[in-house]
Amino acid sequence: MTSTQPSSSPGPRPEPASVTGVQLMQGIGVREARGFWADAWSSVLKQPRAVLSLTWIGLVAFFAVFAPVLASGHPVWFTEKLADGSQRAWSPLASSLSSADILLLVATLVAAVVFVLPIKKWMGWTVGRRLGLLLASVGQGAVMVVVATALKGYLEQREVPPWAAAWRARPGLPWEAAAVVGALSVMIFAWLPTFRTLAARLSFAVLVAVIAGAAIGASWRTPPEVFSYRQKVDAGQAQAVWTLVPWSPVQRGTNLRLLEPGSDPSTPDRDAWIRAEFRPLVAAAREKAGPEAEKAAEAAKVDAPSPRAAEQLAREARERVLAEAESAVRAQALPELEKRALEKFPKGTAPEFVMGTDGIGQDVLSQMMYACRLSISIGLVSTGLAVVIGVTIGAIMGYFGGWIDTLLFRIVEIFMAIPVLFLLIVAAAVLPRNTYVMMMIIGCVTWTGAARFTRAEFMRLRNQDFVQAAQAVGLPLRSVLFKHMLPNGVTPVLVDASFAIAAAIQIEAVLSYLALGPAEQASWGRLLASATNEVGEFKWWMAIFPGFAIFLTALSYNILGEALRDAIDPKLKKARV
Amino acid sequence: MGTYVLRRLLLMIPTLIGITFLIFMLIALSPGGIGAALRAAGGSMQADVGSRAIQEAYLEDRYGLDSPVVVQYLRWLHRISPVKFGERAQILPTGEVVGQPRAMREPPMWRWFLNELPPEPAPVALETAPDEKNGEARSRAWSLASNGYARARSTYVASRAVFEQRLGDYAKAIGRGDLVDYRNRPDLGALSKLSPDKNSPAWAEVEKAWDATITAYRAGLDARARALGVFEAQLFPQVGLPVIPGAVSVALPDLGTSFARGRPVVDLIATALPVTLLLNLIAFPIVYLIAIPCGMLAAVRQGRWQDVTLGGVFVALWSIPTVWAGVLCLGYLASDQYLGAFPVGGLNDKDAASFTFLPTWGEMGFERGFLLDTLWHIALPVLCLVYGGFAVLSKQTRAAMLENFNADYVRTAKAKGVEQKTIVFAHVFRNSLLPLITMFATVFPATLAGSVVIERIFSVPGMGSMVIEAIYLRDREVLLANTLMIAAVNLLALLLADILYALADPRISYK
Q1: Contacts of B456 in chain A (CB under 8 A)
Q2: Given CB atoms, is B129 within the 8 Å cutoff of chain A?
Q3: For chain A, which terminal residue's Cβ has fewer other Cβ atoms within 10 angstroms, N or C?
Q4: Confidence band (pLDDT; 50, 70, 90) for B17?
Q5: In this complex, do B319 and A555 lie within 8 Å of one another by their Cβ atoms?
C-alpha cells in the first residue's frame, strides 16, 4: 500500500541499527507515520503464509476475471468459407462475451493502469483516493449489469404488460434499455462523494454509465450456445485460432461421455468403433468353437455323480472352451483393431480434457476456471452485505440501548436461535436459483455476527468523551454514528469479515452440493456433488480438484484473517476460531 | 436471578413467533405454491390445465392453503399454542386430534344466479347415541359422518374449480382475457363487478357448471351439519383442560401432520431424532477428549513449534469443507473402487433385523451383531462431524488457557514457587474449563440441524435428512415443527449456559 521507505532519505542512506535522540532530530531513522490499517497491512505482509494466501486469492481472482477469454469453446478468430465462395473472418469469442465479462475486463485493465502509472505525482491522487474511485465505478457498473439483467429477464417473460410488449418489439431496445439503466445509475451514484464539485461527480458517473451502457447494449442479445466450429474445421471449411482451454463450461460433447483427466476426446469414438468391429469376430469364434465345446461338455458329463451335477459340469466345460476361443481372438485381433481405430480416429485432432469431463461431457478445467468468479464474488459481496446490515443495526442497538436494543436484539436472536445452514437451505430452496439471490440470502442470514460485535463496541464507545463532545456540538446522528464512532469500533467486524468470507465460500459449496446453488453457473460445489452418485461410483477427479480449490480458498481467507487479527490486536481473541 | 430468567423466558415468545413466521413466509413465497409442489410430489403429470387446477384446488382445500397466508399462519400458531380458543378438539382412539368440522366456503359469483345463499342447516343430532362403552361403534359413527363430509367437500371443491375454469373461458369469450391468469382462473373480484352477458357462447357451460357447484354446495352443507352433530355429541375425550368452557382451554401443542407422508410430525421426529442424537452423542465425547489436551498443549507451549504446528492443523481442519471431507471418505474409504472398507450409506445392514445385539462367534465364523454393525455404519459420519468441532474447541481451549496464564493469580503462584504442573492443571485448567462447559450447552442443540449435510452425504435417516426431504417437498408442517423445536431448544440452551455461568462464577450476576 503506502511506501515503507523512510521519506526523509532521498538517497540510499544505510539505516543505522540504533539511533540516538540527536540523530532522530536530524531525521535519521525516522519512519513516516502511517495509518492504522496501513501499519496492520504491512505487518500482515511480513508473514510468508499470509503472502502465500494472498497469492492464491490473487490467482483465483485472475481466473475470475479472465476465465471467459482463457477458456472458451468459441475460437478467438475464425475464418470460414461461406456457401457463396466468399470468406468470413470474425471473432466468435468477442461476440460470446456477456456484459459482466466485458465490464470486468475493462475494470481490471483500468485498475492496472491506475495503480501502475505514477498518478500520485501527476494529479495528487493517493492510493486510497484511487481505490475509492475504482470501487465507486465498479459498484455503479455492477448495479447497472444487475438491473439490466433483471430488466431483460422481465422483458423476456411469456406474459408482459402492453408497454413492455411494445418496448421489446422495438429494434433499438438494447440501447434504450442501456440508456435507461445508465440514467438511473447516474441519479444514484452522482451522490457518492467521489469529487468535490457536483459537475465533476456527475461527469464521472456519466462516464462510467456510458462505458457500462455500451457493454450492456453490445451484449444484449444472448446468442444461442452453438459450438459447431470444430466440425467445420474438421471438414476443411474453416480455420480457427483457439483459446488456451478450448472448451466452454456449458459445452457438451456430442457423445456425453465421462472422461478421465488427460484423455483424448476421441477415445469414446474409438472404443465404440472397436466394440462394434469386435462383436462379430467374437460371435464367429464362438460359433467355430461350438462343436469342440460340445465335445468337452460330453466328456465332463461322464464322471459326474448325479444328473444335476452333470448339467453343471457340462455347462462349465462348455463355457471354458468358449472363453478360451474368445480370448484367443481377443489376443489376435485386438491390437490390429486398435491400430486401425487409431488410424480412423487419430489422436490429437481435438485437444484433450486436462482435468477430464463430468457426467454430461463438460470440461472440468473450464468449469473450474469459471467457478472462480462465483467463489470470489459470493465471498466478497455476501460478506459486504452482511457487514453493512450488521454494522447499521448493531450501531443503532449499541448507541440507543433501551427498548430499541431489546426490540432489535429479538431480530438478532431469531437468527441466533436457528442454525444458519438450516435457514440458508430453506431460503435457497424456495427462492430463485440465481447468483445474485444467493449472495443476498447469505448476506441477509449471516449479518448477526457483525451486529453483535458492533453493538458491543458502540456500547463501550457511547460514554467516551469524544462521542459526548460530538453530541454536544450538535452533530447530526448520522455523523456521530458513522463518522466518529464507527472508525473506532469497526476493527473487530473487519477482522471477522475475513473469516466470514471463508464461511460464505464453504456455505456456497454446501448449497451447490445439495443442488440448491445457482443454476447455469459453474461452481466447485456442483462439480464436487457429481463426484459420487447413487450407484456408489466415485470419480476422483471431480472430488480432488474442486474440493482442493474450495479448501485452499477458505484456508487462504482464514489465514489472512488470523494474520490480520494478530497484527491488529494480539489480545483480540474473541473473533471466530 | 428469578426475574431475569422469567424475563428471558418471556422474551423467547416473540423470538419463536418471529422465526416461525420467517420460515412460514419463505415457504409461502415458493414459486407455484405448496399445492403445485405437492401435486408434483404425488407424481401427477397431467398436462391439461383444468384437471391440474382441480387437483391443486383439492390439495389446497385439504391443507387450508386457499386462505390468505397470514390467516394460515395464525391458524398454525393457534394449533401450536398451549392456550387455545373456541371449542376444544377431540382425540380419536387412533391418536388423531380432530377439531370442529371446517365451515364451507361460499361459492364464487353466486350473486349472478341467486338472491341469497341457501341457509346453513342446524347440526343434526345423532338419532341413537352409540353406547358409551362401545368404542368401535363410536368410531364408526364418527368416521361415517366425517368421511361423508370430506367426500361432499371434495366434490364441492372440484366442481367449484371446474366452475372457475368455465368462468375463465367465459371471461375470454367476452373479450376480458386480461382478467384470467395462466391457470385459466379469472379474477373473481373484477368479474363480479360486471353484469353477466347471457348471450355469450360460453354462458351455457358456465350455467351448467354453476348448477353442479350449487348442488354440491347444498350437499356439503348437509354433510357438515351431520358431522357437526356427531362432533357436538362429544363421543371422544376432549383435548386439554378447560379454562373458560367452550371458549378458552389449555392443551399440549399439536405439531400437525406431514403433508407429504401423511403421518403425525411427532412420529417422524420420534424416529429421526434418536439417530441424530446417536451420531452426536458419539461424536461429542471424542471431540472433547481430543480437543482439550491439544488446546492445552498449544497454550502451554505458546509460540513454540508445538503451538505453531497445532495452530496450522486447526486452521487447516477448520477450512476443510464438510462436503469435501464427506465425498473423500465416501470415495476412498467406502467405495468399492478403492478401499471399500466401510458401508456407503444407511444406518444398518439390510439383514440387521436378524442380527444378535452383541458380536458372536457362530457357525459361520465371526458375526458382528447389531451393535458393531451400527458403529461400523456411523464411523465415517462421526469422523466428518468430529474434525470441524475439534478445531473450534481446541482454539477455544487455547484462548481460555492463555487468558488465565496472563492473570495475576498465576503470576503470584509462579512467584511463590508453585510447580508448573500444578499451575497448569490445578489452577489454569480448572479456571479455563468454565467457558468450555457452558459452550457445550450452546453447541449441542446447534448440531441437531448442523449434521444436515453429513446425514445427507451418508444417507443417514436422521433429522437432517428429514429436514432436507421436507424442504424439497415443501412439507411445511415438518419444517415448521423442526424450526420450532430447534429454536426452542437452542434458546433454552443459551439461557441455561448463562445461568450455569453465573452459578459457576460468582463474579457474574444478572439483574
Answers
A1: 514
A2: no
A3: N
A4: very high
A5: yes
